[in-house]
Amino acid sequence: MPNIPDISESDDNELYEHHAFRVVAGQQPLRIDKYLMNFIENATRNKIQAAAKDGSIFVNDVPVKSNYKVKPNDHITVRFEHPPHENLLIAEDIPIDVVYEDDDLLVVNKPAGMVVHPGHGNYSGTLINALIFHFENLPNNSSERPGLVHRIDKDTSGLLVVAKTEQAMAHLSNQFAKKTSEREYVALVWGNMEEEEGTVEGNIGRHPKNRLQNTVFLDDEEEQGKPAVTHYKVIERLGYVTLVSCKLETGRTHQIRVHMKHIGHTLFNDERYGGERILKGTTFTKYKQFVDNCFKILPRQALHAKTLGFVHPTTGKFMQFQSEIPEDMTQCIEKWRHYAKHTKD
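RESULT FIELD:
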Protein backbone atom coordinates (compact mmCIF):
# COMPACT_ATOMS: atom_id res chain seq x y z
CA MET A 1 0.00 0.00 0.00
CA PRO A 2 1.57 3.32 -1.03
CA ASN A 3 2.14 6.41 1.06
CA ILE A 4 -1.06 8.47 1.27
CA PRO A 5 -0.08 12.14 1.03
CA ASP A 6 -3.60 13.56 1.06
CA ILE A 7 -5.46 14.60 4.19
CA SER A 8 -7.53 11.79 5.72
CA GLU A 9 -9.56 12.67 8.80
CA SER A 10 -11.08 10.20 11.21
CA ASP A 11 -14.37 11.22 12.81
CA ASP A 12 -13.75 9.52 16.14
CA ASN A 13 -10.25 10.70 17.07
CA GLU A 14 -9.67 13.84 14.98
CA LEU A 15 -6.34 12.52 13.72
CA TYR A 16 -4.91 13.07 10.26
CA GLU A 17 -3.19 10.26 8.41
CA HIS A 18 0.30 11.19 7.25
CA HIS A 19 1.64 7.81 6.14
CA ALA A 20 0.10 4.40 5.53
CA PHE A 21 1.78 1.07 4.72
CA ARG A 22 0.81 -2.56 4.28
CA VAL A 23 3.56 -4.97 5.39
CA VAL A 24 4.47 -7.45 2.65
CA ALA A 25 3.78 -11.17 3.08
CA GLY A 26 7.43 -12.22 3.39
CA GLN A 27 8.49 -9.66 6.01
CA GLN A 28 10.55 -11.07 8.89
CA PRO A 29 9.74 -9.79 12.43
CA LEU A 30 11.35 -6.35 12.83
CA ARG A 31 10.97 -3.51 15.34
CA ILE A 32 8.60 -0.93 13.93
CA ASP A 33 11.02 1.96 14.51
CA LYS A 34 13.64 0.20 12.36
CA TYR A 35 11.02 -0.78 9.80
CA LEU A 36 9.70 2.76 9.35
CA MET A 37 13.19 4.18 8.79
CA ASN A 38 13.12 2.37 5.43
CA PHE A 39 9.73 3.80 4.55
CA ILE A 40 9.66 7.45 5.64
CA GLU A 41 12.17 9.76 4.02
CA ASN A 42 14.32 11.90 6.35
CA ALA A 43 12.83 10.23 9.44
CA THR A 44 15.38 9.43 12.15
CA ARG A 45 14.90 6.63 14.63
CA ASN A 46 14.57 9.20 17.43
CA LYS A 47 11.71 10.94 15.61
CA ILE A 48 9.93 7.64 15.01
CA GLN A 49 10.35 6.61 18.66
CA ALA A 50 9.00 9.99 19.78
CA ALA A 51 5.97 9.55 17.52
CA ALA A 52 5.34 6.11 19.02
CA LYS A 53 5.68 7.51 22.54
CA ASP A 54 3.05 10.15 21.65
CA GLY A 55 0.68 7.41 20.50
CA SER A 56 0.89 8.45 16.84
CA ILE A 57 1.87 5.10 15.32
CA PHE A 58 -0.91 2.57 14.78
CA VAL A 59 -0.89 -1.06 13.69
CA ASN A 60 -4.28 -2.33 12.57
CA ASP A 61 -5.82 0.80 14.16
CA VAL A 62 -4.22 0.14 17.57
CA PRO A 63 -1.42 2.45 18.88
CA VAL A 64 1.88 0.62 19.41
CA LYS A 65 5.22 1.29 21.09
CA SER A 66 8.48 1.57 19.15
CA ASN A 67 9.54 -1.98 20.12
CA TYR A 68 6.48 -3.54 18.43
CA LYS A 69 7.61 -6.10 15.85
CA VAL A 70 5.86 -5.83 12.51
CA LYS A 71 4.28 -8.93 10.98
CA PRO A 72 3.18 -9.76 7.44
CA ASN A 73 0.01 -7.95 6.33
CA ASP A 74 0.08 -5.47 9.25
CA HIS A 75 -1.55 -2.17 8.30
CA ILE A 76 0.63 0.62 9.69
CA THR A 77 -0.50 4.24 9.87
CA VAL A 78 1.21 7.33 11.28
CA ARG A 79 -1.35 9.91 12.44
CA PHE A 80 -1.06 13.36 13.99
CA GLU A 81 -3.47 16.06 15.17
CA HIS A 82 -2.46 18.39 12.30
CA PRO A 83 -2.80 17.91 8.54
CA PRO A 84 0.32 16.90 6.57
CA HIS A 85 2.57 19.92 6.09
CA GLU A 86 2.71 19.33 2.34
CA ASN A 87 -0.95 20.33 2.20
CA LEU A 88 -0.20 23.69 3.85
CA LEU A 89 1.60 25.62 1.12
CA ILE A 90 3.44 28.79 2.12
CA ALA A 91 4.73 31.32 -0.43
CA GLU A 92 8.47 31.99 -0.04
CA ASP A 93 10.66 34.58 -1.77
CA ILE A 94 13.14 32.12 -3.25
CA PRO A 95 14.95 32.99 -6.52
CA ILE A 96 14.00 30.90 -9.55
CA ASP A 97 16.17 30.46 -12.66
CA VAL A 98 13.54 31.04 -15.36
CA VAL A 99 14.95 30.24 -18.81
CA TYR A 100 11.70 30.94 -20.69
CA GLU A 101 8.31 32.46 -19.86
CA ASP A 102 5.11 33.46 -21.67
CA ASP A 103 1.42 33.75 -20.76
CA ASP A 104 0.94 29.96 -20.76
CA LEU A 105 4.01 28.45 -19.17
CA LEU A 106 7.53 28.86 -17.90
CA VAL A 107 10.63 26.68 -18.09
CA VAL A 108 12.76 26.54 -14.94
CA ASN A 109 16.34 25.36 -14.47
CA LYS A 110 16.26 23.72 -11.02
CA PRO A 111 19.49 23.56 -9.02
CA ALA A 112 20.56 20.36 -7.29
CA GLY A 113 19.46 20.32 -3.67
CA MET A 114 16.10 22.00 -4.24
CA VAL A 115 13.04 19.84 -3.55
CA VAL A 116 10.31 20.27 -6.17
CA HIS A 117 7.28 20.01 -3.86
CA PRO A 118 6.80 19.88 -0.07
CA GLY A 119 6.86 16.47 1.60
CA HIS A 120 8.01 14.79 4.79
CA GLY A 121 11.09 16.60 6.11
CA ASN A 122 10.98 19.26 3.37
CA TYR A 123 8.14 21.65 4.14
CA SER A 124 9.82 24.85 2.97
CA GLY A 125 12.43 25.97 0.47
CA THR A 126 10.84 23.97 -2.35
CA LEU A 127 10.21 24.97 -5.93
CA ILE A 128 6.45 25.05 -5.20
CA ASN A 129 7.01 27.50 -2.31
CA ALA A 130 8.94 29.72 -4.72
CA LEU A 131 6.44 29.41 -7.58
CA ILE A 132 3.41 30.45 -5.55
CA PHE A 133 5.33 33.51 -4.33
CA HIS A 134 6.35 34.67 -7.82
CA PHE A 135 3.21 33.64 -9.76
CA GLU A 136 -0.45 34.03 -8.83
CA ASN A 137 -3.29 31.63 -9.60
CA LEU A 138 -1.21 28.74 -10.86
CA PRO A 139 -3.46 25.81 -11.82
CA ASN A 140 -3.35 22.66 -9.67
CA ASN A 141 -2.38 19.32 -11.14
CA SER A 142 -4.19 16.08 -10.24
CA SER A 143 -2.24 15.96 -6.95
CA GLU A 144 -3.22 19.54 -6.03
CA ARG A 145 0.30 20.85 -6.69
CA PRO A 146 0.28 24.31 -8.31
CA GLY A 147 1.84 24.51 -11.76
CA LEU A 148 3.63 21.15 -11.70
CA VAL A 149 3.45 19.16 -14.93
CA HIS A 150 6.30 16.80 -13.95
CA ARG A 151 9.11 16.75 -11.42
CA ILE A 152 12.75 15.77 -10.93
CA ASP A 153 14.46 14.50 -7.79
CA LYS A 154 15.88 16.82 -5.15
CA ASP A 155 19.53 16.16 -6.00
CA THR A 156 18.99 16.06 -9.76
CA SER A 157 19.55 19.37 -11.55
CA GLY A 158 17.93 20.62 -14.73
CA LEU A 159 14.85 21.64 -16.66
CA LEU A 160 11.17 21.60 -15.69
CA VAL A 161 8.13 23.06 -17.43
CA VAL A 162 5.51 24.77 -15.26
CA ALA A 163 1.93 25.47 -16.43
CA LYS A 164 0.42 28.92 -15.79
CA THR A 165 -3.13 28.20 -17.03
CA GLU A 166 -5.61 25.31 -16.75
CA GLN A 167 -5.45 24.80 -20.51
CA ALA A 168 -1.65 24.63 -20.48
CA MET A 169 -1.72 22.18 -17.55
CA ALA A 170 -4.10 19.84 -19.38
CA HIS A 171 -2.24 20.10 -22.71
CA LEU A 172 1.26 19.60 -21.27
CA SER A 173 0.19 16.83 -18.87
CA ASN A 174 -1.35 15.00 -21.82
CA GLN A 175 1.94 15.18 -23.73
CA PHE A 176 3.86 13.69 -20.81
CA ALA A 177 1.20 10.97 -20.37
CA LYS A 178 1.26 10.09 -24.08
CA LYS A 179 5.08 10.10 -24.17
CA THR A 180 5.31 12.81 -26.83
CA SER A 181 7.47 15.18 -24.75
CA GLU A 182 11.25 15.02 -25.08
CA ARG A 183 13.39 14.53 -22.00
CA GLU A 184 17.12 13.87 -22.15
CA TYR A 185 19.34 13.49 -19.10
CA VAL A 186 23.10 13.27 -18.77
CA ALA A 187 24.37 10.80 -16.18
CA LEU A 188 27.74 9.59 -14.94
CA VAL A 189 27.48 5.89 -14.11
CA TRP A 190 29.77 3.31 -12.56
CA GLY A 191 31.48 0.87 -14.94
CA ASN A 192 32.41 0.73 -18.61
CA MET A 193 29.23 0.04 -20.58
CA GLU A 194 29.56 -2.81 -23.05
CA GLU A 195 27.19 -1.43 -25.67
CA GLU A 196 27.34 1.99 -27.30
CA GLU A 197 23.60 2.35 -26.93
CA GLY A 198 20.60 0.38 -25.79
CA THR A 199 17.16 0.35 -24.21
CA VAL A 200 16.18 -0.70 -20.69
CA GLU A 201 12.63 -1.97 -20.29
CA GLY A 202 11.35 -3.09 -16.91
CA ASN A 203 8.34 -2.25 -14.79
CA ILE A 204 9.22 0.02 -11.88
CA GLY A 205 7.56 0.02 -8.47
CA ARG A 206 8.29 0.49 -4.77
CA HIS A 207 10.95 -1.81 -3.35
CA PRO A 208 9.07 -4.23 -1.05
CA LYS A 209 11.66 -3.98 1.74
CA ASN A 210 12.79 -0.35 1.37
CA ARG A 211 10.11 2.07 0.23
CA LEU A 212 12.63 4.88 -0.15
CA GLN A 213 13.87 2.94 -3.18
CA ASN A 214 12.16 1.76 -6.33
CA THR A 215 13.09 -1.42 -8.15
CA VAL A 216 12.46 -3.32 -11.40
CA PHE A 217 9.84 -6.07 -11.43
CA LEU A 218 10.03 -8.66 -14.20
CA ASP A 219 8.12 -11.74 -15.41
CA ASP A 220 5.56 -12.99 -12.86
CA GLU A 221 6.12 -9.95 -10.63
CA GLU A 222 5.84 -7.25 -13.29
CA GLU A 223 2.31 -6.28 -12.23
CA GLN A 224 3.85 -4.88 -9.02
CA GLY A 225 5.34 -2.04 -11.09
CA LYS A 226 4.41 0.29 -13.93
CA PRO A 227 5.90 0.04 -17.44
CA ALA A 228 9.11 2.03 -17.85
CA VAL A 229 11.40 2.52 -20.85
CA THR A 230 14.79 4.28 -20.89
CA HIS A 231 16.98 4.69 -23.99
CA TYR A 232 20.68 5.27 -23.33
CA LYS A 233 23.70 6.16 -25.42
CA VAL A 234 27.36 6.41 -24.43
CA ILE A 235 28.77 9.94 -24.63
CA GLU A 236 32.25 9.27 -23.28
CA ARG A 237 34.09 6.37 -21.66
CA LEU A 238 36.20 7.45 -18.69
CA GLY A 239 37.73 4.22 -17.44
CA TYR A 240 35.83 3.01 -14.41
CA VAL A 241 32.87 5.32 -15.13
CA THR A 242 30.88 6.19 -18.26
CA LEU A 243 29.15 9.41 -19.26
CA VAL A 244 25.79 8.55 -20.83
CA SER A 245 22.76 10.24 -22.36
CA CYS A 246 19.42 8.85 -21.17
CA LYS A 247 16.15 9.61 -22.95
CA LEU A 248 12.93 8.90 -21.11
CA GLU A 249 10.04 7.28 -22.91
CA THR A 250 8.14 7.10 -19.60
CA GLY A 251 8.44 9.11 -16.41
CA ARG A 252 8.54 6.84 -13.37
CA THR A 253 9.96 7.95 -10.02
CA HIS A 254 13.76 7.46 -9.98
CA GLN A 255 13.47 5.84 -13.44
CA ILE A 256 17.03 6.45 -14.69
CA ARG A 257 18.52 5.69 -11.29
CA VAL A 258 16.62 2.40 -11.05
CA HIS A 259 17.15 1.30 -14.65
CA MET A 260 20.88 2.05 -14.62
CA LYS A 261 21.32 0.09 -11.40
CA HIS A 262 19.27 -2.75 -12.89
CA ILE A 263 21.75 -3.16 -15.77
CA GLY A 264 24.75 -2.95 -13.43
CA HIS A 265 25.66 0.72 -13.88
CA THR A 266 24.52 2.55 -10.74
CA LEU A 267 24.75 6.34 -10.93
CA PHE A 268 27.97 7.78 -9.51
CA ASN A 269 27.47 8.95 -5.91
CA ASP A 270 23.79 7.94 -5.85
CA GLU A 271 23.60 7.28 -2.12
CA ARG A 272 20.06 5.89 -2.15
CA TYR A 273 20.97 3.17 -4.65
CA GLY A 274 24.49 2.34 -3.46
CA GLY A 275 26.49 4.53 -5.83
CA GLU A 276 28.28 6.34 -3.00
CA ARG A 277 30.58 3.30 -2.68
CA ILE A 278 33.45 2.39 -4.99
CA LEU A 279 31.75 -0.07 -7.34
CA LYS A 280 34.49 -0.31 -9.98
CA GLY A 281 38.25 0.15 -9.96
CA THR A 282 41.40 -0.82 -8.11
CA THR A 283 42.12 -1.41 -4.44
CA PHE A 284 44.94 1.14 -4.34
CA THR A 285 44.75 3.77 -1.60
CA LYS A 286 45.47 6.54 -4.11
CA TYR A 287 42.46 5.48 -6.19
CA LYS A 288 40.24 5.52 -3.12
CA GLN A 289 41.45 9.05 -2.31
CA PHE A 290 40.76 10.10 -5.90
CA VAL A 291 37.18 8.77 -5.79
CA ASP A 292 36.58 10.34 -2.37
CA ASN A 293 37.68 13.68 -3.82
CA CYS A 294 35.22 13.21 -6.68
CA PHE A 295 32.45 12.51 -4.15
CA LYS A 296 33.32 15.76 -2.34
CA ILE A 297 33.20 17.76 -5.57
CA LEU A 298 29.86 16.17 -6.54
CA PRO A 299 28.00 15.40 -3.26
CA ARG A 300 24.91 14.04 -5.05
CA GLN A 301 23.90 11.62 -7.78
CA ALA A 302 25.50 12.53 -11.12
CA LEU A 303 22.29 13.28 -13.02
CA HIS A 304 21.22 16.39 -14.94
CA ALA A 305 18.00 17.03 -16.91
CA LYS A 306 19.71 18.60 -19.93
CA THR A 307 17.07 18.73 -22.69
CA LEU A 308 13.33 19.38 -22.52
CA GLY A 309 11.03 19.51 -25.52
CA PHE A 310 7.26 19.82 -25.92
CA VAL A 311 4.55 21.25 -28.14
CA HIS A 312 3.41 24.69 -27.00
CA PRO A 313 -0.21 24.41 -25.80
CA THR A 314 -1.34 27.58 -27.62
CA THR A 315 0.90 28.04 -30.68
CA GLY A 316 1.23 24.33 -31.51
CA LYS A 317 4.94 24.79 -32.19
CA PHE A 318 7.53 22.34 -30.87
CA MET A 319 9.84 24.01 -28.37
CA GLN A 320 13.17 22.63 -27.16
CA PHE A 321 15.34 23.90 -24.32
CA GLN A 322 18.90 23.03 -23.31
CA SER A 323 20.58 23.43 -19.94
CA GLU A 324 24.33 23.44 -19.35
CA ILE A 325 25.68 20.69 -17.11
CA PRO A 326 26.29 22.39 -13.72
CA GLU A 327 29.75 23.07 -12.40
CA ASP A 328 29.85 20.36 -9.70
CA MET A 329 29.14 17.69 -12.30
CA THR A 330 31.48 19.12 -14.95
CA GLN A 331 34.35 19.30 -12.42
CA CYS A 332 33.79 15.67 -11.47
CA ILE A 333 33.68 14.59 -15.13
CA GLU A 334 36.88 16.53 -15.82
CA LYS A 335 38.66 14.78 -12.94
CA TRP A 336 37.64 11.38 -14.34
CA ARG A 337 38.69 12.47 -17.83
CA HIS A 338 42.12 13.44 -16.50
CA TYR A 339 42.39 10.18 -14.52
CA ALA A 340 41.38 8.02 -17.50
CA LYS A 341 43.88 9.76 -19.79
CA HIS A 342 46.80 9.31 -17.41
CA THR A 343 46.02 5.70 -16.57
CA LYS A 344 46.13 4.90 -20.30
CA ASP A 345 49.48 6.66 -20.83
